[in-house]
Amino acid sequence: MRYQITGKQIDIGDALQTHVKQELGTVFGKYSGRPTDASITFSKSAHEYVCEVTVHLSTGLTTSAKDKATEIYAAFDGCGEKIDKQLRRYKRRLKDHHKDRAEPVELHNAASYILAREEDSQDYAEPDTLQPIIVAEMETKIPSLTVGEAVMQMELAGAPVLVFRNEKKDGVNVVYRREDGNIGWIDP
Question: What is this structure's pTM?
């Protein structure tokens, strides 16, 4: 497992790095015998330490957690418990969905844009143009998954929506969390 442990404007000591590696190694030894990459970021917000953990499994799934506490070790331990709970909850589904998968998930490049938000005002005037203002352009990856894997990926990442290439139909699909708590699937 490869670890990237960083601190935003705080010093991360060797003892904390060793603790992080041991704890995450134990969690992922239980649930996934495959090599993984982990990104752990520590920061300080007022009097609390914030820990953000993102782990990329070799199957293509990503799980993430965020926690705060007054002590840095407690913040990390909270994240570790959340990731442990996520993987424990999906262990059986991960086994069933990826039993037949011999290779990792294929990723496709795509363009991603951030558009400027229209200003909310009482005096709404008609815009000069209907073209949105692009604030940022980035590149993103779109995974090739089955619908079940896409739903699991969305839930593991805690995302409200996931765009993916459907392996069965070879088209771009979307799964999203509906307001009623159910999951919607758009298959054009």
Answer: 0.60
